[in-house]
Write a structure and sequence with these properties.
Blueprint lengths: L11 E5 L4 H16 L3 H14 L3 E3 L2 E2 L2 E4 L6 E11 L9 E10 L5 H13 L2 H7 L5 H9 L1 H5 L1
Parallel strand pairs: 1-5, 3-6, 4-6
Antiparallel strand pairs: 2-3, 5-6
Length: 153
């Protein structure tokens, strides 16, 4: 599973503004609802329920909120580069400025775990994250995410 299987060019939010973890998740749920046609409330509640199990702030300024959603027929994602970092209760206590949301069908395979692992591997790369932090251009962010080997070069 590749990043371009999860994202499209219109799934990139550059210079994303949020003042808290909850506001970031709520706004991202709204964007995901527009993208998927599913209920914003359902997406928001599902993402919050997952956060209650433990923060999806994985460290180094990165969060990967994710949830399984009834009515979704394929895994889909959205990437946001925050204008200012927010506290995400991350494992390393650092604020988050890069968020990759993943939604997966409620029923089905382990593809969501493969997608989560793929996103996690990509965003653990310090070079990729540094480049993502250097631009607010959505098309450049998409290119960096979709072709991380050229972004890391």
């Amino acid at each position: 599973m590749e990043i371009e299987d999860l994202l499209s060019a219109d799934s990139i939010l550059s210079d994303f503004k949020a003042s808290s973890k909850k506001q970031a998740i709520q706004s991202l749920a709204k964007h995901m609802a527009q993208k998927t046609g599913l209920s914003e409330r359902t997406i928001f509640a599902s993402l919050l329920d997952r956060e209650k199990l433990g923060s999806t702030g994985v460290g180094k300024g990165v969060a990967i909120p994710h949830a399984r959603i009834e009515g979704l027929d394929h895994i889909t994602g959205m990437f946001a580069r925050l204008a200012s970092p927010v506290d995400f209760e991350s494992v390393d206590d650092h604020p988050v400025d890069l968020i990759f949301v993943l939604l997966a069908p409620a029923e089905g395979s382990t593809d969501h775990l493969k997608a989560l692992a793929r996103v996690s591997r990509l965003l653990r790369d310090d070079n990729v994250c540094a480049k993502l932090r250097m631009t607010n251009d959505s098309s450049a962010l998409y290119a960096m995410l979709a072709s991380p080997t050229s972004a890391a070069a």
